[in-house]
Amino acid sequence: MRTVPVRIRDMDMTISGEGTVRPLAETQITPQVSGKVAHVSEELVNGGSFQKGELMLTIAEADYEIAVTLARAGLREAENKYENAWEESRAAISEWESLHPDRQPPPLVAKKPQLEAAKANLEAQQANLEKARLNLRRTKIHAPFNCRVSAEQVDIGQYVSPGQALATLYSTNAVEIVVPMEGNSLKWFDVPGFTTDGKKGASVTVTANVAGDRYSWKGEAVRVQGKIDPNTRMVNVVIRVRNPYASTPPLAPGQFAGVEIAGKTIADAAVIPINSIHEENTVWAVNPVYGRMHIRKVDIAYMDEQGAVVTSGVKDGEYVSVSSIKGVTEGMKVEFVDITAGDDS
Questions:
Q1: Within 13 A of 146's CA, how many CA atoms are on the CB side?
Q2: Looking at 220, 237, 265, which one is the last position of a domain?
Q3: pTM (2 decimals)?
Q4: Rounded to whole angstroms, how far apart are CA atoms 310 and 287?
Q5: Confidence band for 342, pLDDT divided at 50, 70 and 90
Q6: Averaged pLDDT, 58-85
Q7: Which residues, 6+ apart, have CB-to-CB distance to 230 below 8 Å?
Q8: What CA–CA distance (Å, rounded) separates 262 from 280?
Q9: Phi, psi at residue 310, to the nearest 5°?
Q10: Separation between Cα atoms, residue 268 and residue 321, nearest integer Å
Q11: Domain boundary among 112, 137, 162
Q12: Which of 55-69, 83-97, 285-299, 330-344 has the highest mean pLDDT?
């Protein structure tokens, strides 16, 4: 009979999974004003990178500078008209008060409609100047965050319109990996808003193959997605890695990555092979002193392709059978070998 030894110990749980790296934020760059493109940064190409606030491209400014000049002139004219209307109103009120000291002047006599119209025109011209200045600022498009370019459709001399897609960017501040997991796996580690009220999630080691070598990054479990998959009943756990481009090579979107989540500690547990577990979660445990086999029911805390973590049903120093045998009975005498000692017979 082929067997493996049982080792009872306090076990730090590690939950494994895998998923595809995706950007935390992705957006399209679109202009808010129209015109010919006068300047395009050399980095505005597929694969180029920008820091937040860096200039990406410029739309020809001449028309918008003229609009600012005209708006400024219109504002000065409106200010003069308002000052004249105010002086005329004060003069009319003064004249009325000299003739009728005990009565308030009617609105028409005090020229209130003219004054209010002049004030409204002044406010409109102020808004017009602010809009012209805003449009002028909008001729320069800056990076909204630290980012890389995944697509671009613009070049110098091209006429662009508001809302036209010029480039697609994704944030390099962080990436996320969505890892489908069975619901009972989540009880072994902290996920904010799901298994803990705290804001700190479990630590995660993310690994991926890049250029033929395997690299790792540190991450954190930050949340689960809004819905459980109705078909598989799997829970999508979101792992976040901050500053994935801080080292070379980076953890880039589109990569397939494995994750190992640091979980809670289980006291007095053992890991046994999956093929040692039979119907109704039973194992065939072998007492090495007497060479007899006992059928035991085990409590399985967690199971993956690496094995099953059991918290009861086996004892330290015993062996569990990984052989397929017919006619097993409680207490039967068996001969066994420890396959972990190098004997695969």
A1: 10
A2: 265
A3: 0.76
A4: 18
A5: low
A6: 96
A7: none
A8: 29
A9: -115, 145
A10: 20
A11: 137
A12: 55-69
Contact predicate 196/251, CB 8 Å? no
The 3-state secondary structure of the chain reads CEEEECCCEEEEEEEEEEEEEEECCEEEECCCCCEEEEEECCCCCCCCEECCCCEEEEECCHHHHHHHHHHHHHHHHHHHHHHHHHHHHHHHHHHHHHHCCCCCCCCCCCCHHHHHHHHHHHHHHHHHHHHHHHHHHCCEEECCCCEEEEEECCCCCCEECCCCCCEEEEECCEEEEEEEEEHHHHHHCCCECCCECCCCCCEEEEEEEECCEEEEEEEEEEEECCCCCCCCCEEEEEEEEECCCCCCCCCCCCCEEEEEEEEEEEEEEEEECHHHCEHHHEEEEEECCCCEEEEEECEEEEEECCEEEEEECCCCCCEEECCCCCCCCCCCECCCEEHHHCCCC
User: Residue 65 has what pLDDT?
Assistant: 97
Alpha-carbon distance values, 257 to 50, 241, 252, 262 (Å): 25, 12, 10, 16
304: which residues sit within 8 A by CB, 6+ positions away?
15, 16
Least Cα distance to 300 among 271, 264, 260 occurs for 271
How far is CA 271 from its chain centroid?
A: 34
Which residues, including other chains, have CB under 8 Å from residue 270's CB and lie 6 or more apart? 6, 7, 8, 9, 11, 309, 310, 314, 316
Do residues 294 and 181 both lie within one domain? no
Locate 319 and state its tokens. 């062996």
- Give me the mean pLDDT over the 121-141 stretch: 97
Domain shared by 159 and 251, yes or no: no
Report residue 13 as tokens: 């749980």
Do 164 and 219 belong together in one domain? no
Shared domain check, 44 and 89: no
Q: Residue 117: what are its φ and ψ, rounded to 5°?
A: -65, -40
Sheet holding 35-40, edge to edge: 140-142, 55-59, 35-40, 159-160
Residue 59 tokens read as 């739309």
Domain that holds residue 161: 32-59+140-170
